[in-house]
Amino acid sequence: MSVLKFSLVLLVFLGLASPLFMPIVFAQASQAEAASALVTSDNAVFSAYQAVSKANEAGASVSSLLVRLNDAGWFLSRAQTAFKSGDFDSALESAAQCQEKLNGFAADADALKENAIYEHYMDFWVNVAGSIVGAVSIVCVSLISWFFLKRKYARAGISA
Fold it and tell me: Which of 71, 92, 114, 125 is the most exposed place for a label (fewest CB within 10 A)?
């Protein structure tokens, strides 16, 4: 019976003492996870910024992308502040929200960029075709006018 009492006392003692040691282990794991999430979020914001820059250079309207990038930057800032203050759970959560804001961001930026390139291409061809049609129209109208005026003056007996 004494072995059973000893086992029971040991079990209760270990049960009560275990929470004292767990937070240290979990806090370190949480700190490492938060640091990893911060690096990932920081890289995602940097990549998103580059994608916006490329889309802007192509002439795309990037205002909707900038709103998302601004929101993601705000979450990243919150995550960094929480990490520095030791609140690793909030840092991890804010970093996750930052990454969530940037899900599909590169695809959206590429789509806007491709659309802007296509619009510039079409504008170029509309301008070229419009110029050609306009020039041909002026030449044709001039020739037709010249033909009718020459005929009119030839009937009147006036030579040009």
Answer: 125
In tens, the pLDDT along 35-72 reads 999 999 999 999 999 999 999 999 888 999 999 999 99
CA dihedral 142, 145, 151, 152 (to 10 degrees): -140
Q: For residues 50-89, b (16+ Cβ closer than 10 Å) or e, as one string?
A: ebbebbbebebebeebeebbeebbebbebbbebbeeebbe
Q: Tell me how far apart the terminal alpha carbons of the chain are, to the nearest angstrom.
A: 137
Kindly report the average pLDDT of the chain as a whole number. Answer: 84
Burial class (CB in 10 A: 0-12, 13-18, 19+), 106: middle
At 138, the amino acid letter reads I
Closest CA to 99 of 70, 75, 65: 75
Distance in angstroms (rounded) separating the CA atoms of residues 86 and 67: 29
pLDDT digits (tens, 9 = 90+) for 74-89: 999 999 999 999 999 9
Instruction: Compute the distance between CA of residue 99 and CA of residue 39 in angstroms, rounded to an integer.
Output: 11
Going along the chain from its start, the domains and CATH numbers come out as 2-156 (1.20.140)
